[in-house]
Amino acid sequence: KAGVTQTPRYLIKTRGQQVTLSCSPISGHRSVSWYQQTPGQGLQFLFEYFSETQRNKGNFPGRFSGRQFSNSRSEMNVSTLELGDSALYLCATSLFQNSNEQFFGPGTRLTVL
Amino acid sequence: DQQVKQNSPSLSVQEGRISILNCDYTNSMFDYFLWYKKYPAEGPTFLISISSIKDKNEDGRFTVFLNKSAKHLSLHIVPSQPGDSAVYFCAAATGNQFYFGTGTSLTVIP
């Protein structure tokens, strides 16, 4: 069974630009959560989608948004990029909402110059 | 504000010995705790978990201990193997919100 895939794996952008990251869950998984990982803050929760609806949101500014499609694939968008947005963005998927077992993708490494 | 803390960024252990990774949390509402293992260039993988109603959970070489009064969680790996070298994240959950520590890099020396 294929794992969680994230594209692209690496991305370099400049301040002020916007970026869209993609996450394809394991087949059958309907919940997709997004996390930001930075060395100082660890893994921080961004938001969770289930059945194309955002179910929960972490403490991030409105520049961070997402959506989920009918096939459970999810995209995350960051607008007006700032240097501090440089991080590893991970998505994690699970069969159900509120599942405590999540399967993580390899992440997208975003560098903002 | 970091609700889950891993105060040791790194740990080195001899092969065959015990590795003990520690994690502290501040929110008494957390009801589920997890450990993830992460290799370079890969996403974290789920390792072991424990519910707040238990104080110990064991899975092969991995045991997680929970001390609710101290708000402290630890992961024991016995015996440690070189393949265990990775970054370990602890996480705490309440509802569908997860909070992660910053990770501890474990190196098992052959």
Care to describe what's here?
The complex is a heterodimer of chains A (113) and B (110). Chain A is an all-beta fold and 113 residues long. Chain A contains no helices and eleven strands. The N and C termini of chain A lie far apart (37 Å). Chain B starts with a strand and ends with a strand. In chain B, the strands form two sheets. In chain B, strands 2, 4, 5, 9, 10 and 11 form a six-stranded mixed sheet that branches. In chain B, a hairpin with a 6-residue loop joins strand 4 and strand 5 (45-51). Chain B contains no helices and eleven strands. With 110 residues, chain B is mostly beta strands. Chain B has strands at 4-5, 10-14, 19-25, 32-38, 45-51, 56-59, 62-67, 72-77, 86-94, 97-100, 104-109. The chains are: A mainly beta (113), B mainly beta (110). The A-B interface holds A 4, 6, 33, 35, 39-45, 48, 55-56, 58, 90, 92, 97-98, 100-107 and B 2, 4, 6, 32, 34, 36, 41-46, 49, 89, 91, 93, 95-103.
Instruction: Estimate the global geometry of chain B from the Cα principal axes.
Output: globular
Mean pLDDT of chain B: 90
Strand content of chain B: over 45%
Q: What is the 3D form of chain A?
A: globular
Tally the helices of chain A: what do you get?
0
Biggest contact: A-B, 27 and 25 residues
Write the layout of secondary structure elements.
The complex is a heterodimer of chains A (113) and B (110).
Chain A: E1 5-7, E2 10-13, E3 19-24, E4 31-38, E5 42-50, E6 53-57, E7 64-68, E8 74-78, E9 87-94, E10 103-104, E11 108-112
Parallel strand pairs in A: 2-11
Antiparallel strand pairs in A: 1-3, 3-8, 4-5, 4-9, 5-6, 7-8, 9-10, 9-11
Chain B: E1 4-5, E2 10-14, E3 19-25, E4 32-38, E5 45-51, E6 56-59, E7 62-67, E8 72-77, E9 86-94, E10 97-100, E11 104-109
Parallel strand pairs in B: 2-11
Antiparallel strand pairs in B: 1-3, 3-8, 4-5, 4-9, 6-7, 7-8, 9-10, 9-11
Quick summary of this structure?
The complex is a heterodimer of chains A (113) and B (110). With 113 residues, chain A is an all-beta fold.
